Amino acid sequence: MKSLELLKELVKFQSLDRDSSKGVLDYCDTYLKRHGIQTEVLENNGYKMLVCEIGNGEKTIVLNGHLDIVSADKEDFEVYEKDGNLYGRGTADMKAGCASLMETIIRLRDKDLPCKVMLQLVTDEEIGGLNCSKYLVEKGYLGDFVICGEPTNLNIGLQAKGILQIDMDIHGKSAHGSRPWQGVNAITKTLEIYNNILDLPFSREKSELYDSPSINLSKLNGGEAYNKVPDLCSMSLDIRFLPEQKPEEILEQINSLIEGEATINLIGDPVKTKIDDDYVRKLKAVIKDTTEKEPQIFGQHGSADSRFFSKLNIPAIEFGPSGANWHGKNEYVNIESMKEYENILEKFIMNMK
């Protein structure tokens, strides 16, 4: 299996950051050129990315994959096969997807395609994608439908929550620790505000794919000494909002509970691809025909590079091979699912009209 052998080579690269990812990107460039694919390598802020395109036609299908990985213990980088799976850091997330996307492009190279197929390989998805996929979108490397090859167990990650990260300072009144009633404890005041945020209207909303937004109290800092009532507490929240929600309205609700205003650290766009999208419907049918199983349609709580395309109202999804434990111990990809994945992609593209 060519993609399996390619995957084994890709996972040898500990592509953890900007500089260490350049080697694996260059390897992919050489590999594709050796198989007759003309590539374009771009660089932005020191981050390298690769683009290539085959086929003709009015429509373009974009296959997007990231080669960067998250850190791990030394033993997690050991690559081995067991019970039909390939283990090792980056196997599932998402070098298996990248290997399969590359082999799919190679398999389709000499066929009479009904559309264009663009492959994008990037190296900074794990830290936000701002230097690669966002850059490619801004430079016009776009299509009519985007598949990010993240591990989804051959199901379809249709949507993704947006990101709103905020910081706020809550003020109290200091007093001696033996007489807390003479002061206003900023820490307990902050916790009360947090609990009130959980009861705001936006917190109780749901959608077709989500039961609620996600609210994580990610940082809390206050107090100077045991014998002093703290007069300042800083709180940071990581809010993953529903695709239909607007971050400015969420911020307005939160600001109504505090003195002053919360400070925005980051706003990330959601993925809003519709269940009844025609490309999704066609892909769903191909998956069912290939695997003899009805694929699950689900919403991601986190986000991927699909959000940069969705911001321009381009339908984008996450769809990739089966595996488990990405970002954790004993990460693996199922080898057979890689074969199915490639067959699904080829059928889907060849049936495009």
Automatic annotation (TrEMBL):
GO molecular function: hydrolase activity; metal ion binding
Peptidase M20 dimerisation domain boundaries: 160-261
SUPFAM superfamilies membership: Bacterial exopeptidase dimerisation domain (SSF55031), Zn-dependent exopeptidases (SSF53187)
Cofactor dependence: Co(2+); Zn(2+)
InterPro entries named among the record's database cross-references: ArgE/DapE, Bact_exopeptidase_dim_dom, Peptidase_M20, Peptidase_M20_dimer, Peptidase_M20A
Pfam families reported in the protein's UniProt record: M20_dimer, Peptidase_M20
Protein keywords: Cobalt, Hydrolase, Metal-binding, Zinc
Xref: NCBIfam families: DapE-ArgE
Family: Belongs to the peptidase M20A family.
Protein name (Swiss-Prot/TrEMBL): Succinyl-diaminopimelate desuccinylase
Species annotation: Anaeromicrobium sediminis
